Amino acid sequence: MKIIIEGAGQVGSHLAKMLSHEGGDITVIDDNEGRLQKLNSTADVVTVVGDPSSVTVLRDAGCARADLFIAVNPFTTQTVNIVSALLAKRLGSKRVIARIEDEAYLLPENKLMFKDMGIDMLFYPEKIASDEIIDMLKHTASTDSMDFARGKLQLVVFRLDDDSPILDMKVAEFTAAMEAASAQAQLRIIAIARKGETIIPKFDTKFNYNDHLYIIAKREGVPTIMKFLGKDNIEVNKAMILGGSEIGEMVAAQLSSQQLEAVKLIEIDKDRCRELSEKLPSDVIVANGDCRNSDFLVEEGIREYDALVAVTGNDEANILACVVAKKFGVARTIAQVENLEYVRLAEDMGVDAVINKKLITAGRIFKFTLSDKVRFVRYMSGTDAEVLEYTAAPNSKVTKGALKDIGFPRNAIIGGIIRGSESFIAVGDTRIEPYDRVAVFALPETVKEVDRFFK
User: Fold this and answer.
1) Contact present, 36 and 102 (Cβ < 8 Å)
2) Looking at domain 385-454, what is its CATH homologous superfamily?
3) What is the CATH number of domain 235-360?
4) pLDDT 10s digits, 290-331
5) Which of 8, 77, 316, 384 is most buried, most CB within 10 Å of its CB?
């Protein structure tokens, strides 16, 4: 598959590395030679230096033969991305995607207009990230979560603390105990993240301290599972946001619309504070100060808040602020961490949830490199695996027998199935029928093979 990426920023570079590992023919365009040289040292890609909106540059990069063109340059206005995507489409690229920075473009009528113009998808990484944070503040017992079929099935991630009642318990024992507790609490543990490694568990796999369990369950069974694990949802009435970035601004606005008791945003730049004070609703308190100063946070009343969201431009500051907040008794902490090497570090230091803009965006785009049977792809923090939802095609390999008999890839696992209005957990004897919606957890090297099972 020939893929052209316009823009060697954080998201573009991450996509280039990820897609080159999948064996794709990747070309990256950027007008900054330094950024391209840096990318070349870490990824097997072809680079083209030049203006991304130049027809000559786009032709030289091979747009006429491209299966996918991704305009993701963060260093120019969104107009450049839109123009380059439209030009790429006219030059022959089969599918084109463009990064934007205007939320109004995502309104249904505007998305349809761009679709008619030839752009297959618009995405706004900061908006995606802010939506994820709001969702994390609703599901406070888990470190991450996602819904299938509007929540009929849920994937929830729980970290095992040192007082967890299931430490040293085997997967089979835990599953049996849950099913005995409630008929609604059927579940499947699809993965365990442990010390930087993602494990597809067996029945005799034992749980260890600090494991992250990835569990698929029916929506009505999740409260029972939480109770068994000793987890409780925290009601967030007061939230503090560190960092007046686009993400911070959008999170503050969304929390204000939910009519919380208090929403406070702290930003170090005075001019940005004035701008935010004018743009945000009046009930959002904007304070000027350095969030790295714990004395300042105490003065701002951090002990009174239920949640802290750290979205400054500095990963280390975000992680440390969350650690400090935990010591002051803040129940829920979320940190934006863009350096992937720091994600597990943040979790090990006690940060409740981590948001990574690159991973979230990559999942949305990676979908376009697979068959049309995949509904969505999601990367979850703390693991290098991917969560996918497929629709099983008639006569596809996955429908040819019971799961235990079809030779499904060993580094992938089917967690649950939605069939019409019903949802159920997949086991070895389960048979998938045409048009079933299927939740799959797969390690990266297995995704292409999984894709072939559903075509």
Assistant:
1) no
2) Regulator of K+ conductance, C-terminal domain (3.30.70.1450)
3) 3.40.50.720
4) 988 999 999 999 999 999 999 999 999 999 999 999 999 999
5) 8
